[in-house]
Amino acid sequence: xxxxxxxxxxxxxxxxxxxxxxxxxxxxxxxxxxxxxxxxxxxxxxxxxxxxxxxxxxxxxxxxxxxxxxxxxxxxxxxxxxxxxxxxxxxxxxxxxxxxxxxxxxxxxxxxxxxxxxxxxxxxxxxxxxxxxxxxxxxxxx
Length: 142
Description:
This protein is of the alpha+beta class. The protein is built from five helices and four strands. The chain has a four-stranded antiparallel β-sheet with strand order 1-2-3-4.
């Protein structure tokens, strides 16, 4: 059994550590929220979970340009082999990045790359980053 003072000191340190973690979780900075949004969104896309990725799309974009049944069917026909950020420009409450997506058609096993632009905006009220540009257009370009 540890010495009572050592036990009390360890308890205080643990409490301080957890209190600090809790404060950060309650008030994420826009930069931290951006890192988390990019990580989660790119993971969703990389794993082919486009329904989860669609949750990042700006509500106004969803109203103006809803995801069609044809688009949903296209997403089900592909596997994602790469999600690479080619360039990124940060601005005040917005981020624009160019992304190259490697996709493989599940039926033909033919790989191809799609380059698209992501436009993100910070919603200070909801403390959330929204993808204004919507999900990538993966329709074959002939």
